[in-house]
Specification:
mainly beta; seven-stranded mixed beta sheet; four-stranded antiparallel beta sheet; single chain; 55% strand
Length: 115
């Protein structure tokens, strides 16, 4: 069983920055896609950014140019650097990893951006 644990959430003012981390443990096989999703109250979970094992990235339009996703394959870890945060970025951020046995979600970490 693969365990996925996020960290790095918190409260920040508009314009501030946060860095989220997500580590996959439990002897995962090669991790294919690693991604960050978010879910705001009353809204559906949405893809924020994803990165493949070869380093190809994809971003939601709303975060492009402000957020950067990166991964460390040796550590089975994915990061999300979030800059110029806005109140509308407030949500629970979830990490999602895909390996040969399937996809695994983390428990989520709260990000709150105050205006």
């Amino acid at each position: 069983q693969v365990q996925v644990v996020e960290s790095g959430g918190g409260l920040v003012q508009t314009g501030g920055s946060l860095r989220l981390s997500c580590a996959a443990s439990g002897s995962p096989s090669r991790l294919n896609v690693m991604a960050w999703y978010r879910q705001a109250p009353g809204k559906q979970r949405e893809l924020v950014a994803s990165i493949t094992s070869s380093g190809s990235t994809n971003y939601a339009v709303s975060v492009k140019g402000r957020f950067t996703i990166a991964r460390d394959n040796a550590k089975n870890t994915v990061y999300l650097q979030m800059n110029t945060l806005k109140p509308e970025d407030t949500a629970v951020y979830f990490c999602y990893v895909v390996e040969v046995r399937g996809g695994y979600w983390g428990q989520g970490t709260q990000v709150t951006v105050s205006s």
